[in-house]
Amino acid sequence: MSKERARRRAERLAVLEKEKAVRARKVARRSRLRQVKRDLTPRFGRNGRLYHRSRRERIGIAVVTLLAIAAVWTFIPELALRVILTALLVLAVPALVVVVLGRRSS
Asked: Is the alpha carbon torsion for 84, 85, 87, 91 positive or negative?
């Protein structure tokens, strides 16, 4: 009788160990997924933006861009070249701003 109880207890313990291992794998997988999601989610500042530029920087960017467009339309006589250079400025300014001013972490 005691051998039978010992065998049943061993079977129960084996089943419990398997269930515990499955549960541990699920918990580990869930925590890994949570960490990956946390790493991939962008962190927003207090006002909901990914990064912050001061009002002075934003005004400066707009003024310099408008001055460059005004210079193109003032000094370039051909209409097609004006339009092309204006489009190029509009497309290139965001990249130049990031390269020149960079992104701050705070």
From this structure: positive
The H or E element spanning position 103 is none
Amino acid type, 4: E
CA atoms within 13 A on the CB side of 14: 6
Cα atoms in the 13 Å half-sphere on the side-chain side of 40: 6
pLDDT at 106 over 50: no
pLDDT tens-digit series, residues 12-29: 999 999 999 999 999 999
Q: Supply the DSSP string of 33-79, one letter for each residue.
A: HHHHHHHHSPPP-TTS-SS---HHHHHHHHHHHHHHHHHHHHH---H
Structure tokens at 2: 């005691």
The type of residue at 32 is: R
What one-letter code names the amino acid at 73?
W
Residue 68 has pLDDT above 90, yes or no: yes
